[in-house]
C-alpha cells in the first residue's frame, strides 16, 4: 500500500482521478488533501475521510505520505512543483510543465541530482488502444514503417480537461511523445507540408517527422501529422485518428479505447472500453516505482524532448523549411 497526499484537485477530479483512485484502493491510500480552493479541498477531504491542509508546505511536512499526486499546479505553475519537490518524495505530475525547454531541462537536472522520482502524465501512451497496438506489433504486425495522424488542434479558448491535450504546445507535446513512444527510435528531422484552408475557415497543416532506422535494421519510420484548426462548435478530442502502417499489416486507433487492425487475415474491429483506463495504468505504474519496482515510466527528459520537437514545428511552419533535430530532439542550429 502506498500512502499519498493529493495536491491540487483541478477541474477533472470527480470525473477522472477520484474514480481511478477508487478502483485502486487496494494499492493506493489517500492520506491528505490540499487545494487552493478551500471549499473544494474540504469537500474532497470529507468524502475521503482525511485531513485537508491549508498549504502545500504544511501537507508535505506534516502528512504521513510516501508520495504525492500533484494533480493541479494552479496559478503558481512550476513553482508549486518546486515546493513539493523539497519534500524529496516521489511525485506524480498531472498537467503541463510549460513550453520553455531551458526551464524544463533545468528542472530535469535538479530532479536527477537529487535522485527524485517524478513521473509526468502522458495519457496517450497508456490508453487501451495504444496498449493493444503494442501487443499487435509484437505478435502480428511488426514494426511501424509509417504513421499518419489526423488531428483537430484545440483552440486557444477551449477548456483543457485532459493533460497533454490542451491548446498550442501542450497538444503537440502529447502527440509527439506518443509518436516517440510507438516508434522507439530517435527523430531525425521535420519537414513542412503546404497549408490549406479547411472547413469553416480553419487552417490545415501537414508535417512529416522522420525517425532513425532501428538498430536491428530496416527502414526508419515516417510520421505524417495532418493538423487542422477546429471550427467553432467542433469538439477537438473527438477528431483524432492514428493510422499505423507496419511491416505485416496496419492498425487505426479511433480514440482511446477502439482499434481497427488488419494482418494476414480480414479486418478486425475491437472495442476496449472494458479495459483499465489510462489513468489507472499510470497511477499503478507510479506506485510500483514508489515501492522499488523497475517498471519503466516517463520522466522530465521525455517532456523536454517532446516540447522541443513541438517548438521546432513552429519554426518549420513559420520558415517553410526542413528542421534537423539533434540526438536529444532539439532543433539544430542553422
Radius of gyration, in Å, reads 20 Å
Mean pLDDT: 89
Q: What is the overall shape?
A: globular
What is the terminal-to-terminal distance? Answer: 52 Å
The main sheet comes to:
10 strands, mixed
The proportion of strand residues reads 15-25%
Structural class: alpha/beta
Uncertain ranges = none
By DSSP (H or I, 4+ residues per run), the number of helices equals 9
Task: Provide the descriptors you would attach to this structure in a database record.
334 residues; alpha/beta; 10-stranded mixed beta sheet; 5-stranded parallel beta sheet; 9 helices; 34% helix; 25% strand; globular
In brief:
The mean pLDDT is 89. α5 links the parallel β4 (91-93) and β5. 34% of the residues lie in helices and 25% in strands.
How would you characterize the overall build of this protein?
This protein is 34% helix and 25% strand. The protein has 9 helices and 15 strands. The chain has helices at 13-23, 38-48, 56-62, 78-85, 101-113, 128-141, 169-183, 278-290, 300-319; strands at residues 2-7, 28-34, 67-70, 91-93, 118-120, 144-153, 187-192, 196-197, 203-211, 222-229, 240-246, 249-254, 258-262, 268-271, 323-324. α5 links the parallel β4 (91-93) and β5 (118-120). α5 (101-113) runs antiparallel to α9 (300-319) and α7 packs across α9 (300-319). The longest helix has 20 residues, at 300-319. The protein is globular.
Write the layout of secondary structure elements.
Blueprint: E1 2-7, H1 13-23, E2 28-34, H2 38-48, H3 56-62, E3 67-70, H4 78-85, E4 91-93, H5 101-113, E5 118-120, H6 128-141, E6 144-153, H7 169-183, E7 187-192, E8 196-197, E9 203-211, E10 222-229, E11 240-246, E12 249-254, E13 258-262, E14 268-271, H8 278-290, H9 300-319, E15 323-324
Parallel strand pairs: 1-2, 1-3, 3-4, 4-5, 6-10
Antiparallel strand pairs: 6-11, 7-9, 7-15, 8-9, 9-10, 11-12, 12-13, 13-14
Amino acid at each position: 500500500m502506498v500512502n499519498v497526499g493529493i495536491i491540487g484537485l483541478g477541474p477533472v477530479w470527480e470525473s477522472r482521478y477520484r474514480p481511478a483512485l477508487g478502483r485502486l484502493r487496494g494499492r493506493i491510500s489517500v492520506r491528505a488533501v490540499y487545494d487552493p480552493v478551500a471549499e473544494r479541498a474540504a469537500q474532497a477531504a470529507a468524502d475521503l475521510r482525511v485531513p485537508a491542509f491549508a498549504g502545500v508546505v504544511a501537507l508535505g511536512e506534516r502528512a504521513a505520505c510516501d508520495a504525492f499526486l500533484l494533480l493541479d499546479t494552479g496559478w503558481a505553475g512550476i513553482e508549486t512543483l518546486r515546493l513539493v519537490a523539497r519534500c524529496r518524495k516521489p511525485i506524480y505530475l498531472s498537467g503541463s510543465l510549460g513550453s520553455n525547454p531551458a526551464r524544463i531541462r533545468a528542472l530535469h537536472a535538479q530532479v536527477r541530482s537529487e535522485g527524485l522520482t517524478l513521473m509526468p502524465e502522458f495519457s496517450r501512451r497508456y490508453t487501451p488502444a495504444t496498449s493493444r497496438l503494442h501487443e499487435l506489433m509484437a505478435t502480428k504486425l511488426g514494426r511501424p514503417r509509417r504513421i499518419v495522424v489526423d488531428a483537430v488542434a484545440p483552440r486557444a479558448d477551449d477548456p483543457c480537461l485532459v493533460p497533454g491535450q490542451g491548446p498550442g504546445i501542450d497538444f503537440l507535446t502529447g502527440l509527439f511523445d506518443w509518436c516517440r513512444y510507438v516508434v522507439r527510435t530517435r527523430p531525425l528531422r521535420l519537414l513542412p507540408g503546404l497549408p490549406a484552408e479547411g472547413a469553416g475557415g480553419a487552417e490545415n497543416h501537414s508535417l512529416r517527422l522522420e525517425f532513425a532506422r532501428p538498430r536491428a535494421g530496416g527502414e526508419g519510420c515516417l510520421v505524417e501529422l495532418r493538423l487542422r484548426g477546429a471550427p467553432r462548435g467542433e469538439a477537438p478530442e473527438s477528431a483524432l485518428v492514428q493510422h499505423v502502417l507496419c511491416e505485416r499489416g496496419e492498425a487505426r486507433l479511433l480514440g482511446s479505447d477502439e482499434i481497427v487492425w488488419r494482418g494476414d487475415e480480414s479486418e478486425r474491429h475491437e472495442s476496449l472500453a472494458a479495459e483499465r483506463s489510462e489513468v489507472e495504468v499510470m497511477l499503478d505504474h507510479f506506485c510500483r516505482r514508489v515501492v522499488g519496482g523497475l517498471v519503466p515510466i516517463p520522466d522530465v527528459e521525455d517532456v523536454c524532448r517532446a516540447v522541443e520537437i513541438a517548438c521546432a514545428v513552429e519554426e518549420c511552419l513559420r520558415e517553410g523549411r526542413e528542421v534537423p533535430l539533434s540526438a536529444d530532439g532539439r532543433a539544430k542550429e542553422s
